[in-house]
Amino acid sequence: MSKHPRMLRGTLTAALAAAALLATQGGAHADDAAPRIIGGGDATETYSFMTAIDMLRDNGEYRFRCGGSLVDERWILTAAHCVADRDTGEVLDASLFTARVGSNDRTAGGSTAGVTEVVVHPDYLADHEQMIGDLALLRLAEPITDQPTAVLAEDVPEVGSHLRMIGWGYQSNGATTLPTRLQQLDSLVSPAEDCVVNGPWDIGEGDFCTSTETESGYCGGDSGSPALQWVNDRWEVVGVVSRGVGDDCATEPDVLPAVASHQDWIATTLAG
């Protein structure tokens, strides 16, 4: 994966170009979406809060953009770089996005809704030397009441603790097709220093680092997807897929904002 947010490759219309995300390759990117898990397999269970976010393209069709989590009946938590230009911070029009919640198939099933508002974390791109606060909340046009919402972790995951990765990102470097079925991979949380390479994608305040195990990890298409831990007999969302620090997927660790570090912003936005 590259040292960029994990988006999918794709084309945006010329009219949207100024506001669109720049296309990047590898990593947990989402030119048009987010990264995909390498070294994992088909999800063994259904995650009721797991969300596939699609975006309207210049050909009039919707294509997969990023993953996300239903954190309230009307709100989806995802990565800011999925819905805002990562150079200027300009937010894309909310009407371009739709959400499918609660299906392991990103193209069918579950519950669907449009998006009416995009709220990007105020720290996103505030420091142009480093990416921090890579989080966004999408307000849905109508509440989704038939899918249980995610439980957000109250604590930052500890180094060495188990982590479950889920997403629809690429399954290998150089892949051009995303999986339709949700993928999962069990991994570990790594020390922060593993995500320091003296670059703009390094770990920052409020972030944590994933395992450095080779040939497994996030890739383009996984952006915005939740990272999970099993706590008190339930899955809790501990982080959101943001970026990788290496040049290829599954060769270096990944950086994720910890939801516990941003719980005040999340709670304030949901109450608005």
UniProtKB/TrEMBL annotation:
Family as reported in the entry's similarity comment: Belongs to the peptidase S1 family.
Any one of the GO BP annotations: proteolysis
A single MF term (Gene Ontology): peptidase activity
Source species, domain of life: Bacteria
Protein name, per record: Serine protease
Keyword Disulfide bond: yes
Keywords of the record: Disulfide bond, Hydrolase, Protease, Signal
Species, as recorded: Streptomyces millisiae
A Pfam family it matches: Trypsin
Signal sequence region: 1-30
UniProt domain Peptidase S1: residue ranges: 37-271
SUPFAM superfamilies per UniProt: Trypsin-like serine proteases (SSF50494)
